[in-house]
Amino acid sequence: MAQTRSSTRKIINLPQAIRQALELHGRGRLAEAETLYAEILAVKPDHFDALHMLGLLKLQRGKPVEALRLIAAALNAKPVSAEALLNHGNVLNALNRHEEALASYDQALAIKPRYAEALNNRGSALGRLTRHEEALTSYERALKIKPDYAEALYNQGNALRTLNRDEDALNSYERALAIRPDHAKAHNNRGNALQKLGRHQEALTSYERALALQPDFVEALSNRGSVLQILGRLEEALASQARALALNPDYAEALYNQGNALVMLGRHREALASYERALAIKPDHAEAQWNQGLARLRLGDFRAGWKQYEWRWKRPDGVQAQRSFAQPLWTGQQSLQGKTILLHAEQGLGDTIQFVRYATLVARRGAKVILEVQRTLKLLLARVEGIAGIVGRSEELPAFDLHCPLLSLPLAFDTELGTIPANIPYLAATDDRIETWSARLPPRKGLRVGIAWSGNSKHKDDRNRSIALARLAPMFDAPGVQFVSLQKDARDSEAEALRDIPGLLDLGPEFKDFADTAALISLIDLVISVDTSTAHLAGAMGKPVWVLLPFSPDWRWLLEREDSPWYPTARLFRQPMIGDWESVIGRMRRELAHGRP
């Protein structure tokens, strides 16, 4: 029988056959190349080149398990091949076996230390293992050997972006594109870096270049939609996400971005459904969980909303901001009797002012409450009922038994719409500051109105919530009204507009901290503010406050109502359409003209 099998085996010239197979493979004629590799292996089962290249062919055809078997067999035949070890690592990477891939790359580099491709792919494996600093070192070594290595520059950019070094990442992508202008992924990721840097129009251009090269590039379509949303081109943003989802209906990122655009368009129920679809595909998508929670809170579904709000700690920004204490987190379940608890600020100034009200409730459960807040709020919040001690952020903390971030307290107290603690006022100015600021005000001439028109320019929603001072001009000629600026830091671009409004008294630059702001607010009749910390402070002091809200407001202002359960003295003036501040300002001006605070 052995003689019969041998006699029927096809006789081929092995060197000629492998050359022909490699040529076919290189020309993309994969089926013919595969047949020829198989014929070679039928004659010589341990033929290194045939095993190695057939393994690569299988990988190209999306069959990594078969590829791994063949390349492993090639390494049994010739264990000192750096090239085969490189490709062995590549297949293991494709199979998400990154530690094993790393070992293969290291073996390849032991044989061939200046192997740029192995260093690049080693960096890729390290990146997938979240060892980004080590990955960066591997890419840098590859680029010292091969400075024009576009793929290593692209991968270096990815590592730098993961490490939040976006300017450096942008430089790496641009160097890669100078070598390979047709690198669609580099154009896409360059757009991501530009978007993170706030250069949104440039990011849009970068995504569109990627799509010109690769029209069915799903990630670029979704990213393009994301930046169009930021630029306020919401219908175009939805169309871009729809194109991405037509190509890949299960792309969780596009469903998430679609939900965000729907929120901005005021289509909140549809947004919930889009987030739900994203989470059915990717349940651990922290941003989708978080934004669905915000949508639920905006719709008044506090029970589900507070629970999803805790996903903020799994978002990239939240992971960096989360505090690491040895003491346990208080969740509302543990007894506080006789315990010391640290309540700590975690987000913006307005958030701290809004949620510090819970400190009183915590103290009533028998706890000694230590409050840690932003330093500019320290004096203002020191007299909140129930607080035993207060420290500024980064100051030394006293001993404590439990801790809780301020914005986790609504969940700990199972807060519903009807149980929002709104015992107003819970903040007040000190007598000495009131006396100081009383001397700074001119004699009263009618209604005194404090005004704040912009928040932190770095806030991700600043474009939506802040207003240029010049747009408020129609309000400043309301008869019988004396306007006082509560804006601590007017933007450089608004210096001229401030000078052009003679009736606006600008005292904000003199504020040292929020105790000054509170003192001035106590001396005026009405505060008019965009959605910023000034609105929260006025509301917490029980001062009449009119809040200008964009068409798609922050979750805490809920929807379709002119009052706020958080601040009983607040009136909410909402945009009737996206970007329509003019009708809001016109309505306020008419009410001021009638002397209505």
Overall description:
- Among the domains are: 216-322, Tetratricopeptide repeat domain (Serine Threonine Protein Phosphatase 5, Tetratricopeptide repeat, Alpha Horseshoe); 340-419, Rossmann fold, CATH 3.40.50; 431-593, Glycogen Phosphorylase B (Rossmann fold, 3-Layer(aba) Sandwich), CATH 3.40.50.
- The strands form two sheets. Strands 7-6-5-8-9-10 form a six-stranded parallel β-sheet, sandwiched between helices.
- Helix 23 (378-381) links the parallel strand 2 and strand 3.
- It has helices spanning 2-8, 14-26, 30-43, 48-60, 64-77, 82-94, 98-111, 116-128, 132-145, 150-162, 166-179, 184-196, 200-213, 218-230, 234-247, 252-264, 268-281, 286-298, 302-309, 316-321, 349-355, 358-364, 378-381, 409-412, 431-440, 462-465, 495-499, 514-522, 533-540, 581-593; strands spanning 340-344, 368-373, 387-392, 402-405, 447-452, 481-485, 504-506, 526-530, 545-549, 570-574.
- The relative contact order is 0.05.
- The protein contains 30 helices and ten strands.
- It is α/β, with parallel strands linked by helices.
